[in-house]
């Protein structure tokens, strides 16, 4: 599982030491770093990338499959970049001039509400982009529930936000969640289809009446199970509010820790839902991109 970064100011009294390597042939960054740093394993290198300690020709790179070209210089800082230390509850998985992909912890809101003003993914990222440019802004493309962890996408301009939201169904090729549910399903895989509507007390309900709600389709398959719990891979065909939680309640196997939608157990002290994989075609470059996070350790301990 990814670790949080602690707050606090980084010391500027001493410049971090740097190792440098020259690229001799075209190669993915991860393969290059594994060859250049034989004393470090893949997980060590992922941590260096996440903490913005790897630079290519002076620019910080966090994506492990970044393609290197001959003649480029790869630099490795022995200390994390100061901004990386200040990120609390999220880690940046990918960043380019158009968008940012982050992995958020459970318990963190996407953005503030009238009732809740504490730190949010939006406020943390807003502060982050303003470090380089005080006029910079970020824009929410989609949201995760507070208690859901995992991958989220933000745009760096209003135009990019609109482009992503308008082309979402065609741009996104995979959105896979991991859900830990109560019990074992009679059918280990299947599809749930219903119409969802929200009540006046902000609870989402499921119906087969198309006049009452918006159509929602959820595909699921069982990855692990025992007598008490099952770990499901869940793919969304539509992205409605609380869709996975409501549909798994429909199956009489609610997500653990989800008291709102019928769960009676909370063995890990949080909602058992994680946005695991996000794959899409970059709306500007056309490049196919795929991001996958680690499976939360608390999920695996149940099996």
Question: Could you provide a short overview of the structure?
Answer:
The protein has helices at 29-36, 42-50, 82-85, 121-130, 158-166, 168-171, 243-250, 297-301, and strands spanning 18-22, 27-28, 54-56, 59-60, 67-68, 73-77, 90-95, 99-104, 139-140, 149-155, 172-182, 189-198, 204-207, 214-225, 229-236, 273-281, 288-292.
Give structural notes.
This protein has 303 residues and is of the alpha+beta class. It has three domains: 21-81, Structural Genomics Hypothetical 15.5 Kd Protein In mrcA-pckA Intergenic Region, Chain A, CATH 3.10.290; 86-166, 2-Layer Sandwich (Pseudouridine synthase); 172-275, Pseudouridine synthase, CATH 3.30.2350.10. The protein contains eight helices and 17 strands. It has helices spanning 29-36, 42-50, 82-85, 121-130, 158-166, 168-171, 243-250, 297-301; strands at residues 18-22, 27-28, 54-56, 59-60, 67-68, 73-77, 90-95, 99-104, 139-140, 149-155, 172-182, 189-198, 204-207, 214-225, 229-236, 273-281, 288-292. The strands form three sheets. Strands 7, 8, 9, 10, 11, 12, 13, 14, 15, 16 and 17 form an eleven-stranded mixed β-sheet that branches. The chain has a four-stranded antiparallel β-sheet with strand order 1-6-3-4, with no helix packed on it. It starts with 17 loop residues before the first strand and ends with a helix.
